[in-house]
């Protein structure tokens, strides 16, 4: 089943075509990776999907409903959660309270849901620590816990492995495999090992347009993708 579809999605900044007529389909239950060179429009594209920036033209449908003009908080309520490159944790609050804020937004049982989300990402034993004192890798995991606490149907992760050590990347990969049992995942990622390991399908953006979309094997073998991005 298609969970999310975009048709003709467009966002220009002055003369710069950051996202230009993108058609995109996300199947329920998949890990879908969005890749492409720096400046290709990946962050702008997912910002349009979650309502952080307004669409200029085109349509976004989520679970069959037109969400193109809905404000971001309404999209969260419908099940779209996201974590962005810039770390979003509140440094002076405890790990527990950061996640509790997200649970509160959704209106679930505060203590139980908060602890469950922390357990999923492996941070249960750090609940009382101030978030700002966590390592960078653990702060990234905390952001994911904040997303999961919303019980999303779609979790969008923007460069989640950036700045992580190899061991932390392995933890992250295991986490995504577990998350995808009940949540669709859209992943912006530059680390091709992570992409090829996790993604069921990949969409390649280049200069704001879809260069190609397909399975990891098809993308790897595509000469245009190799030329634009994979350096083959
Ligand atoms: N608010 C903005 N105002 C003007 N230009 C912008 C704005 N946001 C993004 N851009 C430009 O739009 C283009 C696409 O940027 P975007 O961040 O979406 O690319 P990206 O594929 O996510 O890149 P990266 O991999 O480096 O994160 C870039 O040229 C960027 O400079």
Automatic annotation (TrEMBL):
Q: Which InterPro entries does this one have?
A: AAA+_ATPase (IPR003593), ABC_AA/LPS_Transport (IPR051120), ABC_transporter-like_ATP-bd (IPR003439), BCA_ABC_TP_C (IPR032823), P-loop_NTPase (IPR027417)
What keyword terms does UniProt attach to this protein?
Answer: ATP-binding, Nucleotide-binding, Transport
The record, for PROSITE patterns, names: ABC_TRANSPORTER_2
| Molecular function, one GO term | ATP binding
Gene3D superfamilies from the entry?
Answer: P-loop containing nucleotide triphosphate hydrolases
List each copy of the ABC transporter domain by range. Answer: 4-232
| Keyword Nucleotide-binding attributed | yes
Q: Which PANTHER family does the UniProt record give?
A: ABC TRANSPORTER ATP-BINDING PROTEIN, CONSERVED COMPONENT OF ABC TRANSPORTER FOR NATURAL AMINO ACIDS-RELATED
Q: What is this protein called?
A: ABC transporter ATP-binding protein
């Amino acid at each position: 089943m298609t969970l999310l579809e975009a048709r003709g999605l467009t966002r220009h900044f002055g003369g710069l075509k950051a996202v230009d007529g993108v058609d995109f389909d996300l199947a329920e239950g998949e890990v879908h990776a969005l890749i492409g060179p720096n400046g290709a429009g990946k962050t702008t594209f997912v910002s349009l999907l979650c309502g952080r920036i307004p669409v200029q033209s085109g349509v976004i449908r989520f679970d069959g409903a037109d969400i193109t003009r809905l404000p971001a908080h309404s999209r969260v309520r419908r099940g779209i959660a996201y974590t962005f490159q810039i770390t979003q944790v509140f440094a002076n609050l405890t790990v527990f309270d950061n996640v509790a804020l997200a649970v509160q937004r959704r209106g679930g049982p505060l203590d139980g849901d908060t602890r469950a989300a922390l357990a999923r990402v492996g941070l249960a034993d750090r609940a009382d620590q101030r978030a700002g004192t966590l390592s960078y890798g653990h702060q990234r995991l905390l952001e994911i816990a904040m997303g999961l606490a919303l019980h999303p149907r779609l979790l969008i992760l923007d460069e989640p492995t950036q700045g992580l050590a190899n061991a932390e990347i392995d933890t992250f990969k295991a986490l995504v495999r577990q998350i995808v049992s009940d949540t669709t995942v859209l992943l912006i990622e530059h680390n091709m090992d992570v992409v090829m390991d996790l993604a069921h399908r990949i969409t390649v953006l280049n200069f704001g347009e879809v260069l190609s979309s397909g399975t990891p094997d098809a993308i790897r073998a595509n000469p245009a993708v190799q030329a634009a991005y994979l350096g083959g």
